[in-house]
Amino acid sequence: MRRFLSTRTFAFPWFRADGTPSESSPLIPKVSGNGSAYTKQARPCVRYSLTDHFLKYVLFLSNLMFTILGLVVLGLGMWGLISKESFAQEKISSIGTDPMLVLVSLGVVLTALCLLGSVGALRENCVLLKVFSAVVLVLLGAQVLVAILSYTTQDQIRGYLRSGMLTAMARYQDDLDLRFIVDEIQTNLQCCGADDYRDWEINIYYNCSAPGVLACGVPATCCVDPLENGTVWNSQCGVGAQKLDEFTAQTVIFLGGCLGGISRWIEQHQGLIGTIGIVVLGVQILTLFITTRLLESIQWHKALYNTVK
Length: 309
What we know:
Largest sheet: 2 strands, antiparallel
Order of helices and strands: HHHHHEEHHH
Structural class: mainly alpha
Shape: elongated
Number of strands: 2
Strand order of the largest sheet: 1-2
Helix content: 55-70%
Distance between the termini: 18 Å
């Protein structure tokens, strides 16, 4: 580390030099005729303690790791947008609902924030460390606020989820990422549509007035058994399912909507979700503590250095 931190030592009596002037000692300044002595003070050695070294490099390495992670997330998001030609003139209007935009935003925030922390810790830059700790504190408060609002406004959140699910279903064939997300939700939660399987009428291809073979059908991920003979994926297993009554349809497809499935999944995994939330908040609080401790140490030793130089 640099010069700003000192190691305080206790001078034992037997190590103290005799301060009595002696003519035989060449290190004692000679008194001139006018009674003035010419002395030259040595600049004190200023060093970091072992704890300060540990905090500095823990903060630097952890932020460097998350900076690399942020760059990877940002790269994946940009690759997804470019590969789907989301910036094309005919698609730019719907880019706001593209799932890849979430990865891009997360990558930008994570990279910029962690880069501040890593450079600030490595260079012992108080300004960068203050900005880093302030942003982490704001994000920490925002997460707590979101958690409180999520608990108190569950009905509104359910409405937002329903709107998002219906939007994804409407663009099922047009966006591969949305299609992947919907398929994963329906397969893992064994559900179909937002409220029930008839919600798929919102899609122009599965609408009963559509001219194609998919009319009045549902995707294969809604099927109870989409595999023929246990090996071959039958992509047409949901054709005509919307025309069936519920008693007949339940032998072919899942009748329940995915919003109910998501609610049940959250209730069943409340402990896991709470544990993850506590760990994430704990890591951020620990980061704030380390940054504050390092800032205090740097500022104290800078002040010490300025007073003695």
